Amino acid sequence: MGIWQKEFTSVVLLFLLVTVLGGLTGWFLPLLLLLTLILLIYQIFQINRFERWISTGGRSQYPKTTGVWEEIYYHVYRIKKNEKRRKKKLSKVIEQFRQSTEALPDAAVVLGVNDEIEWANKTARSVLGLQQSDKGQRIPNLIRFPEFIRYLKSGNYDEAVIMPSPINSQITLAVRVVSYGAGLRLLLAQDVTQLKKMERMRKDFVANVSHELRTPLTVLKGYLETLQDMDDGESSLLTNSVQQMQAQTERMQNLVDDLLLLTRLETQQRKTQCINVPALLTQICKEHSVILNNPERIELILGAQVHIVGEELALRSAFSNLLSNALKYSPDDAPVKVRWYQNAEAVIMSVEDNGEGIAAADIPRVSERFYRVEIKRSKKVQGIGLGLAIVKHALMRHDARLVITSDVGKGSCFSCYFPISQVCTPKTNTVLTEPTASLFLNDH
Fold first, then answer.
1. I need a surface site. Which of 108, 141, 350, 390 has the fewest CB within 10 A?
2. Which residues form the domain of 74?
3. Residue 158 sits in a domain of what CATH number?
């Protein structure tokens, strides 16, 4: 028999006893009232004792009692015991997490919904200058670099932001935010000082080597031109040798020019002006039409007449490379469409072709230096794999991004998205200068 059945049986027997005694003595109602009062006082006493026990957290042994109240005490005591066991286990896990994060070489900071600091490890205190007393403080009030604050407010944490350490300008940090839970975020700061130093050394090396190669290449080209002028055509071996040497020298010259342009895009400070992009695209398309001797192959669609703030040479190189790629990797009679238009979020320049297309696996890598898609082609396409790298770095200098969509065998579309904030209104008519650098060609 269950405890509730026993309790119910006991109450029923008490009422039967009162009924019998009341029938014998004639005091049924007073006895019934007395029994009810006794049961009520007993329950109030038990409730009061339970409340006093639970108010202490139920840590002590529960009071001795019988019946249903003994079962209630037992169940509550068991729940509290299991809760205590789980809490102890959770505390152990949290302590292990804290010990492991304290040992991390990277700074780790847990941020709340309002960017307040919930917790920070030892490395965060050493490279970000945070103190234990800073808990609860908003991190933008402590780390006041504009790039970091914009990154934190943007909500777009796909890429890390590079900034110097707040307490040591010689240390370079790559800061990334990872969202988790209900509005919580984990801020990670990695020391990339050595990586940035090696990257600067690599850029300096490439720039120096490229610059030093220009002089011997110029001398070599001069002598080859002299040999070509001296060639009377009697020796086919000499003629072919000079032509091949000139072709390879020209290819090397293009490579050096591309590397020097990439170095300038990566290192030189921006010098911006309001660029008349529709006029720039019109000029680029005319130049390529003259080279192709086919003005109808390139279709220019100017859906907007907006100008943007930027660098003319960088934009010219980027747009020329995209158009050159589309022409090179399309059939000779296939049209190429160039568009300049605007939507609610960006101003867009796109180049669309009906060429061979790019496989999905290759799209993330086509903007890497010297990367070329290896496929069988009916004709050999010259290229060194730097054009799209130039495009990527030129767009980065304009806070723009390159989006590539492609279907193998159907064609590709390369779109440059410029933020609306780049739009400008020229005070005077913008005059485009003649191109001061060669059109750098590339392959996918």
1. 141
2. 3-98
3. 3.30.450.20
Q: Average per-residue pLDDT in the chain?
A: 81
What is residue 435's predicted lDDT score, i.e. its pLDDT? 41
End-to-end CA, the chain: 83
383 and 260 co-located in one domain: no
Among 242, 266, 290, give the residue marking a domain's end.
266
d(CA 284, CA 327): 13
Encode pLDDT of 405-437 as tens digits. 998 888 899 999 999 988 988 775 444 544 433
Q: Which residue has the tokens 């009377």?
A: 232
